[in-house]
Design goal:
The chain has about 120 residues and is mainly beta. It is about 0% helix and about 45% strand. The chain is built from no helices and eleven strands. Strands 2, 4, 5, 6, 9, 10 and 11 form a seven-stranded mixed sheet that branches. The termini are far apart.
Length: about 120
């Protein structure tokens, strides 16, 4: 049974914007996060949000990306602005059955469930 369903990836020019969505009735009240993985690179944490909507971000995306939840729609979002070519990657939604994300929010092994991924390509 698929618990996390992502959408919203695509191709955009540098400087543009995209919004990713992840629907999950199962995990919306828990810690959820976005990760990304570029070819030949390790999966890295992009942003996380906990039960009370407290957020954490990777330094590389601070000020450009915003993670948010819509509890009414059971949906996690990642608004990505001022996109750069180095943001090109497969983006994954992840969730863990814990209310708080904590300091290890960017460790992939911490998460219980993953979406199928959505491709983001930024051309310069």
């Amino acid at each position: 049974q698929v618990q996390l369903v992502e959408s919203g990836g695509g191709s955009v020019q540098a400087g543009g914007s995209l919004r990713l969505s992840c629907v999950s009735a199962t995990y919306i009240n828990y810690c959820m996060a976005w990760f990304r993985q570029a070819p030949g690179k390790e999966r890295e944490g992009v942003a996380a949000i906990d039960k009370d909507s407290r957020t954490s971000y990777a330094d590389s995306v601070k000020g450009r990306f915003t993670i948010a939840k819509d509890f009414g729609k059971n949906t996690l979002y990642l608004q990505m602005n001022s996109l750069k070519s180095e943001d090109t990657a497969m983006y994954f939604c992840a969730a863990v059955s814990a209310y708080w994300c904590g300091g290890g929010w960017n460790v992939p092994g911490r998460y219980d469930d993953w979406g199928q991924g959505t491709q983001v390509t930024v051309s310069s």
